[in-house]
Design a protein that fits this description.
Order of helices and strands: HHH
Largest sheet: none
Oligomer: single chain
Number of helices: 3
Shape: elongated
Strand content: under 5%
Length: 77
Amino acid sequence: MYNLFMTLLIIVSILIVIATMMQPQKQQDALNALSGGAVFSGQTKKRGFEAFMEKVTAVLLVLFFAFAIILAYLSSK
């Protein structure tokens, strides 16, 4: 059981890296963060591929933390 969750955790962590790298880059957002740009510039609604990748990343992160907690529980027994 421990090996199954460890394998799933490794797979999910690799998928998180891939999903993070596939997200579209915004040069202007990084510039605004460093120079104190407009506060409301990040308030626009994301659409299409960007919204999909954000949801995929969020689901993968929830799975990652769930598997990590399960592994911590299994290793304590």
